[in-house]
Model the fold of this input.
Amino acid sequence: MMNAGARLDDIVHSVRAPAHLLARPYLQPVYDEPEFVVRNVWRLYGGWYDGNPAHLKPAPEGALAAELARLVGGAGRLAPADAAIRAVRSAVYTERADRERSTMAKGIYRWAAGERGD
Done:
């Protein structure tokens, strides 16, 4: 897919490990996941650029956040320091962690669930 010019996002969302391999107990995605392997293969052979021109020189996260806040009517509607927003964020990431199988994904989502926004 890389050689055909596909972007990383397309590859990540279409490549699947063969079911007969995932059925083997010793090939279960326990630490990480096939998606993470696909991303690592991309980085090894394709480098850091994912094929999306919008990601070539993205705006800083802070600038993007400020523009999104402006579009939704102010930072108060998005502010992670707000207790209600933190609670929703925590609930979302806790549920994501509960649904994941790999140690890596569970750990990152659990960390995000406990992160304070202040």
Remarks:
- The two ends are 42 Å apart (CA to CA).
